[in-house]
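Bug #77: duplicate submission created two jobs. Keeping one. Sequence:
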Amino acid sequence: MEFQEGMMKLVVHKPIKTTWTFEKENEKQRSTETATPRRKWNIFNKYLSSPPSKPVNPKPKQPPKEFICTISGSLMADPVIVSSGHTFEQACVRACKVLGFTPTLPDSSTPDFSSIIPNLALKSTILNWCKNSSVDPPKPVDSNTAEKLVRTLMAADAQNENGAQQTEISEKKVIQGVREKPSVNSNHPSHCDSSSDDSFGTTASIRSLQLATQPSCYSSPSSSEIETLAPNCTEEEEILAKLRSPQVFEIEESVIFLRQITRTREDSRGHLCTPRLLSALRSLIISRYSSIQVNSVAALVNLSLENANKVRIVRSGIVPPLVDVLKGGFAEAQEHASGALFSLALDDNNKTAIGVLGALQPLIHMLRSQSERTRHDSALALYHLSLVQSNRSKLVKLGSVPILLGMLRSGHMTGRLLLILCNLAWCMDGRAAMLDAGGVDCLVGLLDGGELKSESAWASCVDTLYGLSHGGLRFKGLAKAARAEEVLMKVENVGCKRAWEKAKRVLEMIKKREEEEEEVDWVDLLGMESQTQC
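Kept job's structure:
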C-alpha cells in the first residue's frame, strides 16, 4: 500500500509537457513572420546594390565619303576603279554594264564602265577603318540587289527629268475604282477613240524610266500605293474574270489594275505570271482599243522584270503579238513592246527564239522611230540578240549593216550602234557586209573626226575595226586608203587604255599582212603558174 501511494504521488507531481497542435501552428507562423521581413529586406538590398544600367552606346562614326559607293549609297566591300577613274562597288558596275545605264554623279560627271580594276588599297583601308571604329566590315552586294539599286536610281533620274509634267489621272483613284467596281458614267473615256489620250498608260508613262534599266511603265512605288495594294489570294481570279469580260470597260479597268500592281509590288510578278493570265494578255496585246493595248503591253513589261518569268513569257507565245505591235500598234504601245523584247532578250535562253519568231526586222525599223525611248530600247534589244551567231546572220541577210552604218554617219545613237556593229564584225557574213558597205572608212572617219565623245565609244569603235582586221588583204587595202594607221596612232592620246590596246592589235594585223606580202615572190609565183598552163 505504501508503495502504491508513493507511486501515485510521483505521477501527480511530475510535470507533463504537452504540445498542442494549435501551439505548433502558432510557433510556425511566428517563425515565418520573423523570417519573411528579413528575406524581403535582402531582396530589397540586392536591388539597391545592383550596378546602374549601362549608358546607351554612342552613334557609330560616319565613314568618309570616299568609302561610300555613289550608286549603292553604302560602304564598299569590293571597290573597283573604272576607266574614268571613279570608284564603285563591283556588283553595281556590272549591273550598270548589263543594263546599259550610265549614272550622273553628284559632280555632274559620267563614269566610263568600259574596264574595271580591283582597288585593293581602298579595300584594305576600309577594312582597317571598320576595325578601328568597331564597325562590322561591309558585305559584298549580290547581283540581284545591285540590279534593283541601279533600276531605282534610273527611276529617280526619269522622275527628275519629267517632274515638270503633271499626270491627269490619280493612280490611287484608279485602283480604288477598280476595287469598288464603279459603273460606267458619262465621264468615262470613249473606247471608240483610237488615240492614246484615253489610256492610263499615256499619263502614267510620263514618269516612266528609260528601258536601259526598267520597263517604260515602271517607277518606284510609294508607301501609300503599297498599302492600297494589299495582298489578296484571289487576285488572279478577279483579274482573269475581268479580262475575259464581254464589257470593254471592265477589261480596261483590269489591265490598268494589273499594270499598277505589277509595278508597285515585286512579289506580285511571280504569282501573277501564270499560263492562264499570259494567255489572256496575249489576245489583249493586239486590241484595237488604245488603252487596253498600251496597258496590256506595259503590264507584260513589268512581269518580265522577274528573271524567273522571262523564259515562261516567251514560251507562252507572247513574242508574235509583240512583233505585231511593233509593226502596226499605237506609238506608246510600241515603246513598251520594244522595252519588253529588250527585257526578254536579257535571258540567254530567249535570244535565239526571239530571232526565229521574227522580231529582228521590226526592231531594225524601230531604230528610226520618232520616240527616243523606242529607239533606245530597240538598239539595246538588237545588241543583246546579236550576241547569238544565228541572229547575227539573220541581221546581215535583212540588210541591217548599211542601215546601221548610215545612222552611224548621221551621228544618231553612236555608242549603241557601235555595240551592234562590233558584234557583227566578228561574224564572217557581217565582216564581209561591213567591208562592202564602207565600214572601214566610216569607222576611221569617226576616230579622226573627234565625233566620239566618250571613252567607251572610242573603245567600241576600235573593237569593231579589230574585228574587221581579220578580213585579210582586203581590209589592209581599205585601211590604207582610209589612212587607218595614221589615225590609230592618235588613239594613244585619248587616254583610253582599252582603245589603245586594241589599236595596237589592229596595227599589228596590218603589219602582219605587209610582211606576208613581202615574203611572197609574185614573179616566181606567176612564172610557175604560166609553166603549169603550158
